[in-house]
Amino acid sequence: MTPTKMRLIVFFTCLTLAASAYAQSPREQLQQMTVQLQQTPNDTTLRERIIKLGAEMKPAPAVPEEARRAFVRGNTAMTEAKTPDEYVRAVDLYKEAIAIAPWWGRPYFNLSKAHELRQEYDRAILALKFYMLTTSSEEEAREAQDYSYVLEEKRDRQAKADDTRKRAEAQQLQRQVWAKDLVQWMTENYGRSLLGKVQYCFYCTDEDARGSKWTYAAAILPGGSTFNPNLSQDWSRLGTKLSFRTAGQANDEIVFSGVANNGVMSHDYCGTVNGPRPEDIKWKACGDERNLFGYGQATSAIFTTSSNGKPMVRIKDRCRPDGHCSHANLVLD
């Protein structure tokens, strides 16, 4: 045998021994990939490879005791949880179980349920997907797939509700800005110290109260009492200042107050702000929707100017079923 042939034999023998030394069994591969997955738990491709390898192994790989321990404790946390936040403990324990034995199907299924109860539907669907890869039962896979459709519906409804809530929050913030700007504008232009003149029309139609047409009227109240006020009476310099402020839990409403006595603005007015202009405010009497006469409130307040250019607020409220309302023109100095 020539030296060259001898060297070739030695080389191939060493190569064969090296390959044999470095060849891994399926269980060794499973162990190595599990360690890798523990370092990169969001690697879904690696997780799927581990699950597939575990399903192909005969006999199936044993579940380490520490994985079972975490799984059982997760079940206990799941059973005793009462609020979405309390399900976090169950989620953590199920994740611990599949970190130790990522080929084991039962923790994936329970993890999916825990995510569902926390309304984390995308995570629940993903955990259920991994569970389906672990089962060899067509019936179980079918049931899991069908339930993933349930989770999709819940997810989409939640997304729609979240979108509606975010829009409502944005609208509320916008109303806060509008309310603040309107209060500033009203205070600067109508927060005057003195009332120069009050024109008051007690239970009149809109036609009677239009312009300068203020007439006498007999208001028949419950119980038979009758008022006959002078509807164009001039109350001079009442000495009451109008005031405006934001209100409501979110400061997106306006309270208009300050005039009292003589039957004029005997209560505050609350305004719901629906836009940036004064005419975008929907007013009502603060508190009870019905006044002391038993008539429902249908309040409006128009911020305008009088015929001589004075700031003026037109108020209409205490409307009766027959369409007659109380009207007041508050002319400011």
Portion in beta strands = 15-25%
- Biggest β-sheet strands, sense, barrel: 4 strands, antiparallel
Distance between the termini: 127 Å
Inertia-based shape = rod-shaped
Largest beta sheet: what is the strand line-up? 1-10-9-8
Mean pLDDT: 81
The number of E-state strands comes to: 10
Taken together, the total number of domains comes to 2
Q: By helix and strand content, what is the structural category?
A: alpha+beta
Radius of gyration, in Å, reads 39 Å
Report the uncertain regions.
15-21, 215-238, 260-264, 290-294
Features:
2 domains, four-stranded antiparallel sheet, alpha+beta, 333 residues, Serine Threonine Protein Phosphatase 5, Tetratricopeptide repeat
Please outline the helices and strands:
Layout: H1 3-22, H2 26-39, H3 44-56, H4 65-80, H5 87-100, H6 106-117, H7 121-134, H8 138-190, E1 195-204, E2 219-220, E3 226-227, E4 243-247, E5 253-257, E6 269-273, E7 281-285, E8 300-305, E9 311-317, E10 325-332
Antiparallel strand pairs: 1-10, 2-3, 4-5, 5-6, 6-7, 8-9, 9-10
Helix pairs in contact: 2-3, 4-5, 5-6, 6-7, 7-8
Describe the structure.
This protein has 333 residues and is α+β, with helices and mostly antiparallel strands. Helix content is 47%, strand content 17%. The strands form three sheets. The protein has a four-stranded antiparallel beta sheet, with helices on one face. A hairpin with a 5-residue loop joins strand 4 and strand 5.
